[in-house]
Amino acid sequence: MAAEGDLKLLGLSVSPFVVRVRMALHMKGLSYEYIEQDLFNKSELLLKSNPVEKKVPVLIHDGKTILDSSAIVQYIDEVWAAMGPSILPVDPYDRAASRFWAAYADDKLFSAYVGINRATTKVERAEKVSETVAVLERLEEAFAKQSNGKAFFAGDSVGYLDLAVGCHLHWLKAQRKMFGVVFLEAGRTPLLAGWAKRFAETDAAKEVVPDTDVVMEYAKKRQAYRAAVAVAAATAK
Ligand SMILES: N[C@@H](CCC(=O)N[C@@H](CS)C(=O)NCC(=O)O)C(=O)O
Question: What is the position in ligand 1's atom list of the atom closest to the CA of 67?
Answer without folding.
Answer: 20
